[in-house]
User: Fold this.
Amino acid sequence: MLNDFDLITHAFPNEINIFPIADVHLGALEHSETDWQDFLKRVEDKNAYLILAGDLINNSVRSAGFANPFDEVLRPREAKRRMVEYLAPLKDRILCVVTGNHERRTLRDDDQDLTYDICSKLDIEHLYRENIAYMCVSVGIRTNRDKPVSTYNFAVTHGSGGGIYTGAAVNRNERFGNVIDGLDCFVAGHVHKGFVSKPAKIVIDGRLAYGGYAAQKMLLPTQVCDPQMLHLVANKDAKKIITTW
Assistant:
């Protein structure tokens, strides 16, 4: 098992799409098998890649406190086996893997890492990190100055903490992400709330466009001149808004 600080690197000749996956909770009574299988079909596109961010299986055990193992529809070992079967056709699309608090229940009690077991069966142990994964992804081919390679630095962890409101999760993740220098994208799950935020960090530079009231009040900087777009999908069966920058 590799150290968290062993950097994972990937290089692609063209632009790619990445789907972060967390909190599948396979084996839970509330897990939606239909939605999960529909999602896997969506990412069959050859340009789609996956980040696995923990709680892939529910792993409800007696030591979990509030968890009731009698509500499970799959035993942990069966959920683990099925997750391997689901991910096997996509194993070459997986960029990195971290464990979640549900898998960590067994890791804490018996030193059995269910997420690592899944990675071992998929032969992608080198992409697994126990706590946090640092990853560098480059896209493009440096043929001339007009088409340089773009490099993106990721940090991926399952996440922690509760909170009823989405704002609490945003604040926690932005605060943690802000201590990682050179970070382009921070991915976390755990809170079961989907959100995208785009904070910025001050770098001392003569071209810096930050100051005035924001500096006086020590407000955190944000991205400017980069409008957000909401794409409304026409679908009579389900409402869907796609957020892009």
